[in-house]
Amino acid sequence: MEGFQVDELKLYMSEDIKIANGIVLKCPKIRDVAEYGESAYFSMANTLCATPSSMMVALDDMKLNYMKVKDFELFMMLCQSLKPEATYPLLGDLDLSKFKPHQVGDTEEVILVHEDTKNDESPIVISPIIHEVLTTYIRKMHNFKKEVKKAGNEITRKQLIRLARQDAEIAKNKPHESFLRPVISAVKCRQGYSMDYIRDMGIFELMDDLSRLNIIVQADAALGGMYSGMVDTKKMDKTVLNWTRNIVEDDNDKGKAIADGIVR
After folding, report:
1. Which of 15, 61, 186, 199 is the 20 to 30 A CA-CA neighbour of 3?
2. How does 186-217 read in b/e, with b if 16+ C-beta sit within 10 Å?
3. pTM (2 decimals)?
4. Which domain does 231 fall in, by range?
């Protein structure tokens, strides 16, 4: 993973991403998500990049300690039931259920090899590194955060699992609420996009545009506060004025930078 960088421009342009030999990640458009079904789509995307922490309840039901299960080990369990009809919006015709574990030579390393290509000169394989690249792209595309929860002792671990069970039970009884509808509505109304334009937007493009709009609103608020004398520029983070800056995880905290400079 050293030196690996997500190609954000390709994601924004909704171009296919070649992860490895025979493994290509699709960048779905909003119309693709709507046709597939929003709830089912996000469930599938979350499953592909699940972590032992996000699946701690299921692993506990299997009598497995989630803290002792590696990300790739969990993926090997999950992919056996993932058919192309479930994953095609992101992986096309690739059949994850045909990948079987193979030990690499005399080492302890285990990789997944596509059964139909195992005798080929260049078989399709998924190694822990390829899995990490794939899941990193999927998380970046959907603005997912990698869920990692570590417990310092057994009591804490059981408490985390108990709380996760409660959350799962509550979520199960909640009616589905669209995540994309308010996001699309906000971007559409603010930017004046047509519905046809929205349909052809990539999922990453939409998420990125929403984050960019938040940055622009913050910059406009900061600039307005400066001209009105309501904001002390000496106390304000000046980067908040640059609405073309790279989007980073701490951008949601930039609003606090404006508030810190408000003259009281």
Report:
1. 15
2. ebbeeeebeeeebeebbbbbbbbbbebebbee
3. 0.87
4. 180-260
